[in-house]
């Protein structure tokens, strides 16, 4: 059972639910959505009397295994990364290099993607490389360079964390923690980021079903971190003519299943520079709340994922057209009301 609580009137109700759960052997977990509402996830049976408190705004019996992530008890969630809101109707562009290689590279990339319309800077410090002999990222030094680029440009930063032991140090520097595709089902890592209150970008595993992906989001929410954004980044199919197949079905389908914001990564989703713009715009037309795109001034010299990294000029064109598409859709929807 999920009990929705109006936070302004919540005086005593959480304690009452806690006491009632102890009496009946149930457990409760509370999640604060940072918008004036709390959800109490009740695992087990609870005495019905306690649910008549005036602060109880709704009671739902989830039919889906992903309870907190489900749309059954919430319409939308807006995730705040620094001053940037994801999920408020305006597409958010996150951009930057695949990997942070040095200060000059990152600062010039950050300035260029900001000028192109990005409002969040991406860049990997801990990199999940297919080969153990490839550049693995600069680790904490990379995080320091990211924080430096934030100081110069004002852009909040998103960066990947690969192991539970890296979470605290990464959260000390970054504004958003990325869980990469290869770690979508790393449950100890999901639990650890769930214990922070730093926003999380949860990428889809490339062989994960939508339900498995939502269950991974549930691991983070169940620990009390309400700030989860889903990222479709391409899946594996029988067709290997591109690096991955960007599953844009997932975007409108997720909008039916979950209140969490959804962004799309057309860089990894295609693996091919020439396809990034088309798929980015298709993602916005499909209802995505934002894009994450690999871009830096000299894509050919990128140390990682050069073939899918675009020039900032191309990013600027994507950002302009993405805003125009989103505005057109919104204006049309308002005209119908
Ligand atoms: C990345 O964003 O650079 C990355 C490695 O992404 P994914 O986990 O989707 O492959
Ligand atoms: Mn990459």
Can you describe what's shown?
The protein is an alpha/beta fold and 337 residues long. It is built from 10 helices and 14 strands. The protein has helices spanning 13-24, 103-115, 140-153, 167-173, 187-195, 210-222, 250-257, 266-270, 273-285, 312-336; strands at residues 2-6, 27-32, 37-43, 56-60, 79-81, 84-86, 92-96, 120-122, 157-160, 176-179, 200-203, 228-232, 262-264, 290-294. The chain has an 8-stranded parallel β-barrel with strand order 7-8-9-10-11-12-13-14, surrounded by 7 helices. The longest helix has 25 residues, at 312-336. It is globular and about 65 Å long. The two termini are 34 Å apart. The relative contact order is 0.13. The mean pLDDT is 96. The structure holds phosphoenolpyruvate and manganese (II) ion. Phosphoenolpyruvate binds at residues 98, 124, 128, 180-182, 203, 233, 265, 268.
Write the SSE topology.
Blueprint: E1 2-6, H1 13-24, E2 27-32, E3 37-43, E4 56-60, E5 79-81, E6 84-86, E7 92-96, H2 103-115, E8 120-122, H3 140-153, E9 157-160, H4 167-173, E10 176-179, H5 187-195, E11 200-203, H6 210-222, E12 228-232, H7 250-257, E13 262-264, H8 266-270, H9 273-285, E14 290-294, H10 312-336
Parallel strand pairs: 7-8, 7-14, 8-9, 9-10, 10-11, 11-12, 12-13, 13-14
Antiparallel strand pairs: 1-3, 1-4, 2-3, 5-6
The structure holds phosphoenolpyruvate (PEP) and manganese (II) ion.
